[in-house]
Amino acid sequence: xxxxxxxxxxxxxxxxxxGCWDQNELDELSIVMGIGINIDKKGDLIVTYQVVNxxxxxxxxxxxxxxxxxxxxxxxxxxxxxMEATRKATKQTxxxxxxxxxxxxxxxxxxxxxxxxxxxxxxxxDPEVRSTIQVLIARDTTPSKILRTFTAIDKVTSDEVATILxxxxxxxxxxxxxxxxxxxxxxINEGGQPLINGIRLTGDKELAVTAQNYEVGxxxxxxxxxxxxxxxxxxxxxxxxxxxxxxxxxxxxxxxSAITVPCQGNKNxxxxxxxxxxxxxxxxxxxxxxxxxxxxxxxxxxAEANCAVNLEKPSEISxxxxxxxxxxxxxxxxxxxxxxxxxxxxxxFGELLYRENPKKWRHVYKQKYEQIFPKLxxxxxxxxxxxxxxxxxxxxxxxxxxxxxx
Amino acid sequence: MRNRRKRPMIKTYKKLTDMVAEKSxxxxxxxxxxxxxxxxxxxxxxxxxxxxxxxxxxxxxxxxVKKSLGNPVDLIVRExxxxxxxxxxxxLLFLEEMNDPQLLNEFILAPLMSLTSDKQSTPxxxxxxxxxxxxxxxxxxxxxxxxxxxxxxxxLLAGFSVLLxxxxxxxxxxxxxxxxxxxxxxxxSEVVIRGPKDSFTESMKTNISxxxxxxxxxxxxxxxxxxxxxTHTDVAIxxxxxxxxxxxxxxxxxxxxxxxxxxxxxxxxxxEFIQDETVTVFPxxxxxxxPDVVVGNLLEGRVGIMVNGTPFSLIAPTQFxxxxxxxxxxxxxxxISTFLRLLRFxxxxxxxxxxxxxxxxTTFHQAMIPxxxxxxxxxxxxxxxxxxxxxxxxxxxTFEILREAGIRMPRAVGVAVSIVGALVLGQAAVQAGLVxxxxxxxxxxxxxxxxxxxxxxxxxxxxxxxFPLMIISSVFGFYGxxxxxIVIIAHLTSLRSFGYxxxxxxxxxxxxxxxxxxxxxxxxxxxxxxEKLAKKNETRTQPYQVKKKREEETTR
Lengths: 406, 556
Prior knowledge:
Chain B: One of its GO terms (biological process) is spore germination. The complex is a heterodimer. Chain A is 36% helix and 29% strand. Chain A is an alpha/beta fold. Among the domains of chain B are: 50-174, no CATH class; 355-477, no CATH class. The interface between A and B is medium-sized, with 29 and 26 residues.
């Protein structure tokens, strides 16, 4: 007890003499929402930071000259590596850059073609940056342009892009959210290669970087555009459209989508709404030439039927199911073809083989996986179920036909 | 450290008396020798009086009493005569306003003055007058003999009236205690919506009667002590003999007997004398002004301690969890009681750490704030000149000032205080850019939370601990806050109330008692009294069968 009493002053000193560790008042921080990385001719990194001006973004804050300042500002710095550029940026910023809330990391296409490896380490090593930061590639534009674009609904570009990704993945399924963690994981996985979403700028590009952008009805917009296929950290090419949806089918990530299925001569007759889907992957490693089995079990509703069919007949539904299966199979096969063409295992088949038979992977497949993958036999089997047809059964076109003979 | 039940208060007392003795000695020596010798003289007289009997000569005794009391204005000396064998002179002594005049007039003076020896077959000699009067004339319940002058004085001061009869060496003290006391009113500090509305008063007699009326058990024990060399305050301990642990009673008696002080005005003072640990912010006694709370605790094997002159009685031993329980919990349905108990506990946590969390979040862990909220808080902080800790301290202290002002203020001015407080705290400070609106919300929720804790005693400990916690979290963030909370919990587990662990039934865990802790199980499921407290008589109710039977019958 006596000891405690004596040491009490020391404890109190401890409180005040240790300094304040990593204390930062909120008004001493610049909240970075987006990071863009480009590369110049010399090979230096050009790093762009999109920093929010909280007074303009926060709801219901009056005073402080609301509406006179832009909602965000962009700093740009050059450096031989990411850290150097980040610290160099303080030459322009009045506050410390704070990365914990960054939602988007954009690479330029140029950097991606060169190698993304040089930029990934710091982002994943820094304790401040979250591992949920979305990784993207600016297609036909630069990260700096993307980060300077004013958006209409969400006030901060990075926020909007991250939300677009989420919504699009859930409703359309041609893009797969790839945060820094997933990108690194797919690099580390056996034989795996990363897959990164692309974004592009559409509309009036001159207008995009001015605040007037959200004052016009048809502003320049940022739009998701395909997924970039990498090999050894270098961008090899792009997978666009339905082929990109194949990736989600294979990975079992497809939540919902709308798929067009032909019907009685009308090529775009049905629109089928996928409501949930389940994917089973298995590998056959018995021979030296392995094969992969993909089984997809989607559940779907009929969302549109633009031809005269009698949907009350179960046989009709099973016909639709069959064509629906074929469409999905085609999508998946196209994706696999594309991946094999790039010779980049973006689909995680290598990891699958490894899990199926680790020994064989290590001793047989791994060394010549580059040769195996392009010729890998993949069996795709889709077994769909169409459950509901919305508020009506047969389309009005059919009802019309039915009544005609009377 | 193992055997840590210390008695610091007793030690301090010893020191205090030494100091007093030294002081009085020093003062006396500086006075004139005459007064000094007089003092010695009076002390000698006192000793003499203690030993001697009362003088049979009336005026000698009366004069001596007058002298001892300093001839006070409220000492009434009523001389009268009555007839036995011959005319006898008697004197009735009492302190005005401490006695019920109606009782004095109708049951003592009236029958005595009309007393004649006619009815008696044999005349009563004067020397037996007192006995005769006691048996025949005084129509009162409490009539006792007074043997010497010390007893006489004590009786007078306790509110008895004393009858002296010429030629007798004894007196009679008669329980005519009366005078004005506050009536039984609704409790002011523990208001309930459903439940008894009576509360204790300043009179211990009334308080004991309130408990007696609720417990018609022969096992109810009330034991009286006198504490205070000057005030002679009555202190009573109340318990149920068939439930309570006899060792506990022994310990309580011992500690009460050890208390040496000049005066005891409130149970809070007694609490400090007999508590286990002095260096703590947590209350080690529950105090209540509700008789039903005392009875409920007696039934659990606890002991009530009452002090004359205050409506607040103490409950010992006390567990931490009791401060989050309201008597109403047992009168309402168990589901809502459980909800309210959980709410109160979280409210305690809020009032303890809400400002600290705000400080830690905004100065260290900005990454943990949801992005949109971060923008909001950052925008509010924009232009505030002080760091978050200064802002928080200023606001918290302002609130404490307002609260203190509100309590001590005459009621008429209270409105002004609240208007100024609300405006200064809420509006002006924010508009002037001195504090951020978020801080006002935090201080507001903290304040409201601290009022929602049913026990004022434990609310104050949260109030005190809040400030060190704020400072620690401004220096070390959540890391420091967590450490500080661990220290607080360790301290809580180390506390004992009369040897009973303060954190029980959680640490050490007592599964049966958990049924009535943060949760309240249905009353039919609370079979047992607290395990450690009521070893003697554990079963509270037999498992309730009647209802089951009834249900079976109806389903059939």
